[in-house]
Design brief:
The chain is built from 15 helices and 13 strands. The protein is of the alpha+beta class and 433 residues long. The N terminus is likely disordered. It binds a DNA duplex (13 and 19 nucleotides) through β9 and β12.
Length: 433
Amino acid sequence: MQPSKSNTAHRAIALVDVNNFYVSCERVFNPKLRNKPVVVLSNNDGCAVARSNEVKALGVPMGAPWFKFKDLAKQHGIIAYSSNYALYADMSNRVMSILRQFSPDQEVYSIDESFLDLTSFQRRDLVKYGQLIRSSVLKGTGLPVCVGIASTKTLAKLANHCAKKRPEYNSVCNFNSMSDSQLDQLLSEIDIGEIWGVGRKRAPKLKQLGFNTVLDLKRANPEILRQNFSVVMEKTIRELNGIVCIELEEVTPDKQQILSSRSFGTPVTDIHGLSESISLYVSRAAEKLRRQQSYAGSLYVYIRTSPFRDKDPQYSNGMTIKLPSPTDSTPKLVSIALWGLKQIYHPGYNYAKAGIMLGELVPASGIQTDLFSTMQPNPKSERLMKAMDLINRKMGKESIKMASEGFKHPWKMKQENKSPCYTTNWDELLKVD
DNA sequence: ATCACGGTTTGCA
DNA sequence: CTAACGTGCAAACCGTGAT
């Protein structure tokens, strides 16, 4: 007889997550930042989106508006970086391809997280295997990761949480190697808000009903909780009990919508500035659209003032435009978006943000070609789009663009302290001192 | 009642 | 100097009008 193992572990799912990802990327290329308090700010240097442990210890919350913490930052010498997405994306790709070598079944869940199915490796010691993953990523990229292993994705997330928060696990935590009572003891020490799918809204509601720890929810009746919440809650409870309800998604499905929006560095009042920004966002979104070989059936444009400038008159509006036939052509999409902008624009406001969304996406292969339509896919325009995408890929972003995107962009987002693109741009690398 | 829809809310990284 | 608060997705949810 085997010693009683609760999780008659049919499956072994690992969640590998880079610690403080953006901050760790900056540290790889600037070792002086080690052991110092470092934050990385969101676009426009608006919020703190990545914090080193030192910064967390100083009490800066995730997503904190940075202007509220500038004094604290000065006091403690916190080093603040603007986000450098080109660098992070490249580092992410390196991490993901190393992880892929440890399992044929990988789901890239986000820029810094990957699920790996390790079920077929269970004859090995998975904690050792986790340590091997960890040292390989560290050696290959310089980035520190934590590994959580369990029988479902929801539990693997929690195991990863333990790997991070509890030094005794040495960055690798395997729930499957624990006994029932050991695991339940551990789950009883974790707050319900740490559970994947339980967030800002649901945690308080659950606590009101008397569920405070992960163990409380694990023991809850899934049917009854489903009435009070949703099918998601039911799945969460079953997953906490080791029943797989959320499968590994190895092939990333095509996007159903593509969104591009930015807040402005300085407010924009006239329609020209708005038009330029909208043109730029449509171009970015259309590139993504073509990369996944889809056509858009509708386009949504919106503009709004800043709700935080509460003394300013507020205005927010958007409109959805159904396209006469699905398209992936930048100039067509731009002219439609600009037409829409004209409809919703009102002078006299300080606009803080604009954006567009491409919706009703369909695969290019299955496009409805109406013989009598005047908007048939046009070979000339297709060749032009292909050429533009190729040039922009080879020569760098925005080598060629639509004239309507403009050039000066006084509204462009604020980025006061961006690090060089160490891995993707030779010119910037040469500037490093 | 039930459905399809569109807009809104929620959660997540 | 001052004022200053992200982005991009999916899915659930909810009100509404049509049937």
